[in-house]
Each structure stands twice: as C-alpha cells, then as structure tokens.
Design a protein that fits this description.
Structural class: alpha/beta
Strand content: 15-25%
Number of strands: 12
CATH superfamily: Aldolase class I
Distance between the termini: 63 Å
Bound molecules: ribulose-5-phosphate
Strand order of the largest sheet: 1-2-3-8-9-10-11-12
CATH class: Alpha Beta
Length: 317
C-alpha cells in the first residue's frame, strides 16, 4: 500500500492550480481539429506541428513502374535520404524488405494497385466480313482499373500513419477508384489512420486548376484526410482554398533543381501543406543536397534561390 502510506508521510503539499484554467488547445492542421486522438497523433507525425507542413519522400513508383530510374536499388538510393524527410511514401513490399523497422519516420503506405505501365488497352480483335478488325475503346485508361491493395490489418501491422489511394476522376474507372477510396476511408476511420487521395491525371485530362479543384474537392467531401495533386502555374491558390483538408503536391517528372525548388516554394506560399516528392529528389544529380534544399524551402523559410545555392554548395562540397 505504498500510495496510502505516501498520502500520510509525504511532506510536499498538494497543488491543485485552482487559479489556472486547463487549456483547450486547437489543432494545427487544416480541417483536422475534430478528429480523435490517434488520428491527430498520426497526422502530427506526418506534418511537422511547428511549420504545419510535411516533406513526404515518395518512392512508391515501383508499384506500377517497376525499377524506375533512381529506384533500382532502394537500399542504396533512398535510405541515405531518410533522415531528412518527415514521412516515407512507399509500398509494403519495400517497407518490409528494405526499410529498417527502427525508423522514426511516419509511413504513408501505398494502398491501391493492380495495374501496370504495360496494362493492355481495352482492345477487341476479331473479324468482320472475313477481314481482321481491331477496335479500341477511346479513353479507356487501363491504369485506372485499380483495386485496393492492402488490408487494414496489414496497414496496422506496418504502423502506417497514412494510406495512399489513386483516384482517377473523369476516367473510365472513376467510380471504381472512388469506391476503393471510400472503402479504405471506412476501414481506416475504425483505427484512426489517415487516407490520402492521390489525384491521378489520365491521358484525357488537362492539368488545370479547374480539374484539380474538382478532383481534390470530391475526395475531401468523400472523407479523405489529405489530398495529393500537382501544382499548377495558374490559380493554385484557388485549389487549396476550396479544399477543406491539407493538400500536398507531387513533384512530377524530373525538372531542373531550381525549377523544382520554385515549384515547392510557390505551392507552400499558395496554401499547400507541403510536398510528396519523388523523382525530383531521387533522380537529382545530388539527391541528399536536393533533399536538404527542399527541406530548406518547406520547413526553414528559404527562398528558392537560397535553397538552390545551398544545393550547389552541398553538391560541390
Ligand atoms: C505514383 C505516385 C507518386 O508517389 C507520386 O507521383 C510522387 O512522385 P513524383 O514526385 O515522382 O511525381 O503517387 O503514382
């Protein structure tokens, strides 16, 4: 009965702080203030509470592209970058085989899949009047024929903070990809895991602010906790403004380092909550300096030119 003994013998008087009301702090992340504790805690591991932003390092491309340039050996190219990001966006195969379980980084787990870069177009081949005939369906978009690719229990075993699901608004399989997303949201909500809807731009879709406003808003309305889309040269602030949850930008195809840093900077100035960037980091001539430069722009208030100078100094050191 150590506790009872303690109440009688301890000299220190109790202090109830009766004059200090308990605080009721808000939550730092857009649209996330009414979630439960576990979900907020996971989001706080993905987004830095001091800046409200995140640097997600995306290297899940292999789930439909195979060993794309820069990801031939994830152990050699990605592990050196790990210390400088906030969150690893990856597949469960790479997580289990390559990423040390001792990592302190949050995990955004790729949770949709089932098609590849070489998925066949929807083509009918036959004969008409004795002559061969080949018909293809316009706008079929074979890549959009995805399924969910991870069970929620496996996501829990992998300690995922976020599940990432590809959504193909306006494509042949729009409905299917939206159902993948809502099914994952229902499962993830049971355990306080966040779902990130990834706007996949099909061949028929233009990368305009109008399209991204539509796509990101639909995903948020259907329950996504965060959304990933591309940056646009014009009106990107209207996309972030009318999306009630955080938006992170994908890097897209490799571009010159200064251009990539300007894009990350502009996106953050225009309301993005950070980046989910892959090729512009791991395909850079100097991936670790580039990763640090992106960090400078997203978290440390550097202007793109300052971050580029940092990139060059580190590269040449
Ligand atoms: C694959 C993805 C990638 O994670 C995404 O495209 C980010 O990578 P990058 O910056 O190379 O575009 O969602 O579909």
């Amino acid at each position: 009965m150590a506790d009872l003994d303690g109440t009688q013998t301890e000299k220190k008087e109790k202090e109830f702080h009766t004059q200090t009301p308990q605080e009721t702090p808000g939550f730092f992340l857009k649209g996330s203030h009414q979630y439960d504790w576990g979900l907020k805690n996971r989001l706080s591991r993905v987004f830095n509470p001091k800046t409200g932003r995140t640097i997600m390092l995306a290297f899940d491309h292999g789930y439909f592209m195979g060993p794309t340039t820069g990801l031939e050996r994830v152990d050699q190219t990605i592990l050196p970058l790990e210390p400088y990001c906030d969150c690893l966006m990856l597949t469960r195969g790479i997580q289990r085989s390559i990423i040390p379980a001792s990592t302190q980084k949050a995990v955004a787990l790729r949770a949709s899949g089932g098609t590849s870069m070489v998925s066949p177009d929807d083509v009918w081949e036959g004969e008409l009047d004795g002559k061969p005939l080949k018909l293809s369906r316009p706008g079929y978009e074979p890549l959009s024929y995805e399924d969910t690719a991870v069970d929620i229990e496996d996501a829990l075993r992998l300690n995922a903070c976020v599940l990432a699901v590809q959504v193909f608004i306006g494509s042949q399989h729009e409905r299917r990809s939206l159902q993948n997303m809502t099914k994952l949201i229902d499962a993830a909500n049971r355990y306080g895991i966040a779902v990130m809807g990834v706007v996949a731009v099909g061949r028929a879709m233009a990368r305009t602010a109008q399209y991204f406003r539509l796509a990101t808003r639909i995903m948020a309305e259907l329950g996504c906790h965060l959304v990933k889309c591309y940056h646009t040269d014009e009106d990107f602030d209207t996309i972030t403004s009318c999306c009630p949850v955080p938006i992170v930008i994908a890097g897209g195809k490799k571009r010159p380092e200064l251009d990539a840093l300007k894009m990350a900077y502009d996106a953050c100035q225009q309301g993005a909550s950070g980046v989910d960037m892959g090729r512009n980091i791991f395909q850079s001539d100097a991936p670790v300096p580039m990763m640090k430069a992106v960090r400078g722009v997203v978290h440390e208030g550097l202007k793109p030119e300052e971050a580029y100078q940092m990139y060059q100094d580190l590269k040449n050191a």
